[in-house]
Amino acid sequence: MGKRIAGRVGLALVAALAGACAAGGLDPFAEDHALEASHKHYTRLVRWAEFDRAGEYVAPELRDAYRARTAGFAHVRFTDYEVRAFEVDPHGQEATVRVTYSAYSLATATTVALEERQHWYRETETNRWRVRPVFEESPAPGAPHG
């Protein structure tokens, strides 16, 4: 009887460990996944012009400036985005992501590309990833230059 209980306890422990691994609890790459998930969610929010929600990822000291900058995108409709580069520092505490958003201007009916440098860092207090975004507007390939 004792062996049967020990076997069940052992099986339960194996199942619990497998569940923890699947949930990211023991995954050594979980922090990389957290960065990638944060970057993807933020970038998709920007692509769909959900700037208030995207602002939740922005470093607290930059949120007001971010909201002021993105308010200027009211005349722009984003159509797609492409990640151009994704570089993580050797210590895994910071990353730089370069994203190009394809868009068109409602005011001028021209195609534009919006370049964004996303400087990600791990927030010490919460261990959450935060971004310091820098937007640079430039004409899309093939678009007329003004």
Model description:
It is globular and about 45 Å long. The chain has 4 helices and 4 strands, in the order ααααββββ. The protein has 146 residues and is α+β, with helices and mostly antiparallel strands. Strands 1-2-3-4 form a 4-stranded antiparallel β-sheet, with helices on one face. The chain has helices spanning 2-22, 30-47, 51-54, 63-71, and strands spanning 76-88, 94-105, 111-122, 129-139.
Helix-strand layout with pairing:
Layout: H1 2-22, H2 30-47, H3 51-54, H4 63-71, E1 76-88, E2 94-105, E3 111-122, E4 129-139
Antiparallel strand pairs: 1-2, 2-3, 3-4
- What is the 3D form? globular
Helix residue percentage: 25-40%
In N-to-C order, the SSE pattern is HHHHEEEE
State which percent range the strand residues make up.
25-35%
Query: Distance between termini?
Result: 84 Å
- Could you tell me the mean pLDDT? 81
Enumerate the spans where pLDDT stays under 50 for 5 or more consecutive residues. Answer: 9-29, 139-146
Report strand order across the widest sheet.
1-2-3-4
Which structural category fits the helices and strands? alpha+beta
* Contiguous helical run count: 4
Would you report the number of β strands? 4
Please tell me how large the radius of gyration is. 21 Å
Major sheet size, sense and barrel closure: 4 strands, antiparallel
